[in-house]
């Protein structure tokens, strides 16, 4: 067959020696043909590289069997775990996941959502609640399930699956206060287009204020987007070089916390004796570091799985009731704080 020419159902019919009607029945209604015939059709399809026109089929069935998922970044294994959790559930239901990456840009998120809708996606799963006006309008007008993940907020458009970033940050802050740390600094992730980072910082400041602790402006820092391992080292060393260095640093993103830990250990700075370090995310290496890291465990894979399960439930049942699924969080108390 000539390279570049689209393989059609007629080609399958010709190559298999079966009628076009028989081939079509074997694909659309396999129970109506003999098993030997069905196997012959499937073998011919593999041999000549035929791919069914799913767009044409979706016009008939009103289903594309594709689910759009938008994540902010792929450099964090948390979002990879989230996507993997969703993909496993969808694959078991014979659905395909379309993955878009926003890079924490509201415009890129809107473009991904627009593409999913144009491709006739059956449902859309996004990360967070921070959307452009254009994206929000697209999601509100979309006639399939919409899932907002990774946080919980009252303004959810439809289904929400995640955990309270506010409560998780407050819990870790209270823990550090109760352990007796007096001068606590916080390092947030990128705040732009990131409701999770905003909620975490707000909770830290509120909890410190309720405990009667002042937080000087120089103890509130942010790392660039996307957060990286390399950003944590210079930041914590600059904090410790101050005349009144913090005795604890709450990194509200895990990668820079790990970088800070490695920088301290390489400089002979003792953790937690000289400075305590707490993270947020509990990446797989955090518990295996020379000084295991105290952190907030995020159930990333479960968020993906439950998002996909609720999408399937909505698609199968046809219901339209709003759903809130709180998967919770856990403080992982280890040696670093």
Shape: elongated
Number of strands: 12
SS field, number of helical segments: 12
Largest sheet: 6 strands, parallel
Low-pLDDT segments: none
CATH homologous superfamily assignment of the largest domain: Response regulator
Cα(first) to Cα(last) distance is 66 Å
List the helices and strands in order: HHHHEHEHEHEEHEHEHEHEEHEE
The assigned structural class equals: alpha/beta
| Fraction of residues in H or I helices | 40-55%
Strand content: 15-25%
Indicate the CATH class of the largest domain: Alpha Beta
Radius of gyration: 25 Å
As for the number of domains, it is 3
Instruction: Please tell me the overall pLDDT.
Output: 91
Structure description:
β8, α11 (254-266) and β9 form a beta-alpha-beta unit. The chain is an alpha/beta fold. α5 packs parallel to α12 (300-317). The chain has helices spanning 9-16, 20-28, 35-48, 54-61, 77-92, 106-118, 133-141, 165-178, 195-210, 232-240, 254-266, 300-317; strands spanning 66-71, 96-101, 123-127, 146-149, 159-162, 184-188, 220-222, 248-251, 276-278, 295-298, 323-326, 329-332. The strands form three sheets. It has a six-stranded parallel sheet with strand order 2-1-3-4-5-11, with helices on both faces. It has a four-stranded parallel sheet with strand order 7-6-8-9. Strands 10-12 form a two-stranded antiparallel sheet.
């Amino acid at each position: 067959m000539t390279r570049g020419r689209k393989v059609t159902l007629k080609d399958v019919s010709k190559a298999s020696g079966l009628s076009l009607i028989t081939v079509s029945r074997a694909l659309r209604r396999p129970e109506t043909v003999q098993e030997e015939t069905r196997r012959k059709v499937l073998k011919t399809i593999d041999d000549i590289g035929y791919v069914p026109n799913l767009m044409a089929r979706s016009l008939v069935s009103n289903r594309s069997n594709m689910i759009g998922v938008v994540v902010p970044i792929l450099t964090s294994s948390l979002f990879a775990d989230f996507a993997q959790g969703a993909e496993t559930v969808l694959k078991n239901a014979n659905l395909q996941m379309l993955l878009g990456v926003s890079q924490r840009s509201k415009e890129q998120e809107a473009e991904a959502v627009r593409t999913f809708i144009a491709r006739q996606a059956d449902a859309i799963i996004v990360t967070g609640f921070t959307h452009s006006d254009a994206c929000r309008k697209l999601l509100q007008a979309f006639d399939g399930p919409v899932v907002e993940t990774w946080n919980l907020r009252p303004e959810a458009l439809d289904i929400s699956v995640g955990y309270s970033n506010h409560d998780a940050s407050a819990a870790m802050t209270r823990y550090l206060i109760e352990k007796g740390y007096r001068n606590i600094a916080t390092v947030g992730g990128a705040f732009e287009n990131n409701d999770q980072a905003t909620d975490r910082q707000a909770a830290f400041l509120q909890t410190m204020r309720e405990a009667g602790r002042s937080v000087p402006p120089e103890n509130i820092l942010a790392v660039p987007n996307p957060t990286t391992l390399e950003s944590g080292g210079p930041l914590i060393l600059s904090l410790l070089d101050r005349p009144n260095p913090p005795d604890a640093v709450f990194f509200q993103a895990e990668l820079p916390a790990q970088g800070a830990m490695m920088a301290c250990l390489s400089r002979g700075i003792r953790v937690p004796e000289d400075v305590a370090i707490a993270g947020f995310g509990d990446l797989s290496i955090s518990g295996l570091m020379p000084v295991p890291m105290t952190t907030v465990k995020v159930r990333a894979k479960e968020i993906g799985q439950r998002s996909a399960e609720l999408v399937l439930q909505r698609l199968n049942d046809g219901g339209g009731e709003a759903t809130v699924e709180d998967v919770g969080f856990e403080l992982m108390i280890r040696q670093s704080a």
